[in-house]
Structure to design on (416 residues):
């Protein structure tokens, strides 16, 4: 039996999305396949302006809130209907890739175009959104935090970029701190948030799977650990007489990898910085300060890993006759994606004949800002060689189209 045309699932216009995506990738292009669109840079502002024109030319209502989040809005015509949001971000890290964030925004706009041209009647308003400063040039997840009502005056007092740079950036973008702090929306007005993003890891590619349905965004903990020993002459002090802070820190770093790989299969841990003092080749290190960070998609595992790593640090300090100081620097619990939206993503994949798997996101995303506001859901498409935040970041176009079609089917399931 042949399937009639009308029973085929609706699909986005891949050529139209491609044209928009290619144009966007040319704004801030670095010539090596990547883009630099650091938040409020000339290139980022050019991309924002282009998106506004693209939205207006497509005939959608263009909206910008106090945080500078840009949207294309499609009214369902029902009074006081809530809005289903979906999108990502146009900003990039310096010398980043052209897919991170950009794909999600272009797919969101294409979904809106497809829904409208097929005259699908809706029970929710649809809004394709570009969030300001996801990458945290100034403040992490700035635009989505503002929309969710999580942005506080103190967050803006000490931006990563420095106060003056931040203020100058706001001025260039025509934004103000006062309006940013007033950009929050009510829970009642938002029905949910969906995001398509590249995986930025190798799991999907390695498994040959089309779509990753995100179960959670990992939580993390971080510490400054100081191993404290004693400075001595590095030539005249025998090996057994030393209280060598460097040895303790080094042994700890190696053991971290071992313990995570053996006992915490879904977790990761990283020592990203180490400093010895006094810091000379002829002095036994009296002190080693290191920065430790660890992540897990599971709250219980995160807690257990925290305890295990602190015990390990104490054990290594003791083994080398050192004192240990542990200063907690930050902690964030994992954010869970809506089980219902995960289920809807799964059936969208089935409808489209695409393979899917459930995985956790090791990177942060705008979706987590909205976790207490509305149900959230994310899907990933494969990143070639797992590369991201680099010009060699790449996702095959077919995979981009698959992701956009899953987004479309899911939007239809939730809003039509
Ligand atoms: Zn991103």
């Amino acid at each position: 039996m042949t399937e009639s045309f009308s029973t085929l699932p609706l699909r986005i216009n891949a050529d139209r999305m491609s044209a928009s995506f290619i144009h966007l990738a040319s704004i801030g292009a670095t010539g090596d396949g990547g883009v630099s669109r650091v938040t409020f840079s000339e290139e980022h502002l050019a991309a924002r302006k282009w998106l506004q024109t693209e939205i207006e030319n497509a005939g959608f209502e263009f909206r910008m809130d106090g945080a500078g989040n840009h949207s294309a809005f499609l009214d369902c015509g029902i009074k006081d209907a809530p809005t289903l949001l979906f999108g990502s971000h146009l900003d990039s890290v310096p010398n980043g890739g052209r897919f991170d964030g950009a794909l999600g925004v272009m797919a969101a706009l294409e979904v809106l175009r497809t829904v409208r041209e097929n005259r699908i009647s809706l029970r929710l308003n649809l809004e394709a959104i570009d969030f300001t400063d996801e990458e945290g040039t100034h403040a992490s997840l700035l635009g989505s935090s503002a929309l969710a009502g999580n942005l506080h005056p103190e967050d803006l007092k000490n931006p990563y970029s420095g106060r003056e740079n931040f203020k100058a950036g706001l001025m260039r973008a025509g934004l103000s701190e006062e309006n940013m702090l007033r950009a929050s929306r009510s829970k009642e007005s938002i029905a949910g948030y969906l995001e398509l993003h590249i995986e930025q890891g190798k799991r999907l590619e390695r498994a040959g799977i089309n779509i990753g349905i995100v179960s959670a965004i990992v939580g993390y903990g971080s510490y400054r650990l100081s191993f404290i020993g004693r400075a001595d002459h590095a030539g005249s002090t025998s090996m057994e007489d030393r209280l060598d802070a460097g040895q303790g820190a080094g042994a700890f770093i190696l053991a971290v990898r071992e313990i995570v790989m053996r006992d915490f299969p879904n977790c990761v841990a990283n020592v990203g910085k180490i400093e010895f003092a006094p810091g000379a080749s002829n002095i036994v290190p009296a002190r080693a300060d290191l920065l430790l960070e660890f992540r897990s998609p599971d709250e219980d595992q995160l807690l257990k890993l925290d305890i295990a790593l602190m015990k390990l640090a104490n054990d290594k300090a003791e083994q080398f006759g050192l004192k240990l100081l542990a200063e907690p620097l930050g902690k964030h619990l994992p954010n869970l994606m809506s089980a219902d939206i995960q289920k809807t993503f799964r059936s969208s994949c089935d409808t489209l004949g695409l393979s899917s798997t459930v995985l956790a996101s090791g990177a942060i995303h705008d979706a987590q800002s909205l976790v207490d506001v509305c149900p959230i859901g994310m899907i990933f498409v494969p990143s070639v060689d797992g590369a991201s935040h680099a010009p060699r970041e790449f996702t095959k176009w077919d995979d981009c189209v698959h992701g956009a079609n899953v987004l479309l089917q899911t939007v239809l399931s939730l809003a039509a």
The chain is about 35% helix and 20% strand. The longest helix spans residues 299-319. Residues 18 and 326 are 50 Å apart (CA to CA).
